[in-house]
Amino acid sequence: MSFSSKVKGEICRHTGLTKEEALAAISAIMKVSGTLSFSGKVLNFRVTTENPASARMIFSLLKEHFNIHAKLMVKKSNSLKKNNLYIVLIEENMGVRQLLLEAGILVEEDNLLSLDYRINKRLLINEDCKKLYVRGAFIGGGSISNPEKTYHLEFVTHNNEYAEDLSQLINSFGLNSKVIQRKSSYIVYIKEGEQIVDLLNIIGAHSSLLELENIRIMKEMRNNVNRLVNCETANLSKTVNAAIRQVESIKLIQREIGLARLPKNLREIAELRLNYPDESLKELGEMLNPPVGKSGINHRLRKIEKIAEELRKS
Question: Which residues, other chains included, contact 212 with Cβ-Cβ below 8 Å and sequence gap of 6+?
Answer without folding.
Answer: 147, 193, 196, 197, 200
